[in-house]
Amino acid sequence: MEHDFLTSHQGQYKDRLFKFIFGRDDENSKKWRLELYNALNGTNYTDPNALELNTIENVIYITMHNDISFLLGTEMNLYEQQSSRNPNMPLRGLLYFSQLYQNYLTKNGKNLISTQLVKIPTPEFIVFYTGSETDPKEWTLKLSDAFMNKDNSGAYEWTAKVLNIHPVYAKELQKSCKALYDYSCYVYRIKDNIKSGMKNDEAIEEAIGWAEKEHLLGNFFKIQKAEVIGMSLTEFDEDEFKRICREDGYAEGLSEGLSKGQKDGRMEKAIEDARSFYANGASIELIAKSLNMTIEQVNEIVKQPVLKRQ
Fold first, then answer.
1. What b-and-e string marks burial along 245-262, b requiring 16 or more CB atoms within 10 Å of the CB?
2. How far apart are CA 84 and CA 2, in angstroms?
């Protein structure tokens, strides 16, 4: 059955669909990545190989999705896809870029104790946000918004530019980057299906068939069907899990409770639910991401014996 085929691929694919489309080293991905860069910067580069991928894998300590980072001449680019608003993107980007620059310095034999000024590629950090039509078209997040003491000097600033790729806004990019438009149309097809009452797997199954008929991204959805199914199921299940946690207040309560050592009823309830999620098949990584915890904290919770209340 088609439903069984969909379910059997869940959890097997760790990459996100955005990265799978734009962040690989095959010819289509190179072409689409260059197309996306040109669309965003108003350039007309023609050689896909001019973009040198330098994505850092498995950067657990900053919980980045590690979507796409690449060098183009004197520019260092980082493209990240987000399904919900995250005000911490500037700090996350800063930490990620620090690792990118460290790798760049090492690779190019640059020495920071030199008396000569060490030149580095200019950074550009773009967050592609699959938001709603009522969200702004674009906005800029600033690191200074996180400073404990307000500082408007701009002396210590780092930014993340957020682009809402809802199809209403993505239409403007269609002429110059059809790949991004096709991607957004597929994602929002699933979202609309879920809103209409379909379960996640049914919504994805319908969207896959529709994308094939519409020839989105050429034959991509037909050729890469298994991979797309696996990544889509994982992403939308994770989004649903996070939504439930936000609505029930688990994320904030558990995060604050763990950091302050509080033992109030809300924290205890959140810990119980974390254990329940784990018992029902949620991975350690998913629980950690959704509840703003570290993997070590989740491991500690699920390993602790459950004490019966008196």
1. beeeebbebbbebbeeee
2. 30
Q: Tens of pLDDT along 156-185?
A: 999 999 999 999 888 878 888 999 999 999
Range with the poorest average pLDDT among 100-104, 121-125, 299-303: 299-303
Within 10 angstroms of residue 43's Cβ, the number of other Cβ atoms is 11
DSSP letter assigned to residue 84: S
Q: Is it the case that residue 48 has pLDDT exceeding 90?
A: yes
Sorting pLDDT into bands at 50, 70 and 90, what band is 206? very high
- The answer, yes or no, to whether residue 102 has pLDDT greater than 90, is yes
Residue found under tokens 């993107």: 89
Element (H, E) at 53: strand 52-53
Output the pLDDT for position 3.
Answer: 43
Ordered by start, the domain boundaries in the chain are: 2-243, 249-303
Supply angle C-alpha 213, 217, 218, rounded to 5. Answer: 65
The DSSP code for 61 is G
For β-strands 75-82 and 52-53, DSSP reports them as unpaired
Q: Using a CB cutoff of 8 Å and minimum separation of 24, what contacts does 197-201 make? A: 200/233, 200/236, 200/237, 200/240, 201/3, 201/6, 201/7, 201/233
The answer to whether 300 and 288 have CB atoms below 8 angstroms apart is no
DSSP 3-state of 46: coil
Q: Please enumerate in sequence order all residues whose Cβ is within 8 A of that of 293, keeping only pairs 6 or more positions apart, or say none.
A: 254, 255, 258, 274, 287
Four-CA torsion 167, 169, 175, 179, nearest 10 degrees = -50
Residue 142: strand, helix, or coil = strand
> Can you read off the two tokens belonging to residue 248?
């029930």
